[in-house]
Design a protein that fits this description.
Helices cover 90% and strands 0% of the residues. With 84 residues, it is mainly α. It has one domain: Helix Hairpins (Orthogonal Bundle), CATH 1.10.287.
Length: 84
């Protein structure tokens, strides 16, 4: 794998990492919102927030699988080229 390809993969990995962090924060926010809706007996809104949270958790799992794949690819390429 060329140096340019490795650099592109690393840049893509950073972008995915930022997306992962944003999703994790949003999921946490939705948990807090869901709990607040539940405490105030706003159950339809709590259900909607929970459904969105579950959807984002699924997206997060897919994103994390992609991140793991890219990390493995980079690790293998670095080992083959003895890149620091």
């Amino acid at each position: 794998m060329s140096e340019d390809n490795l650099n592109q993969l690393e840049a893509h990995l950073l972008t995915l990492g930022r997306q992962e962090l944003a999703l994790e924060r949003k999921i946490q926010e939705l948990l807090i919102i869901t709990q607040e809706f539940g405490r105030t007996n706003r159950f339809p809104e709590a259900d909607q927030a929970w459904q969105l949270r579950e959807h984002l958790r699924t997206e997060l799992a897919i994103l994390q699988a992609n991140i793991t794949h890219i990390e493995r690819t980079l690790y293998t390429a670095r080992r083959q080229t003895n890149r620091p």
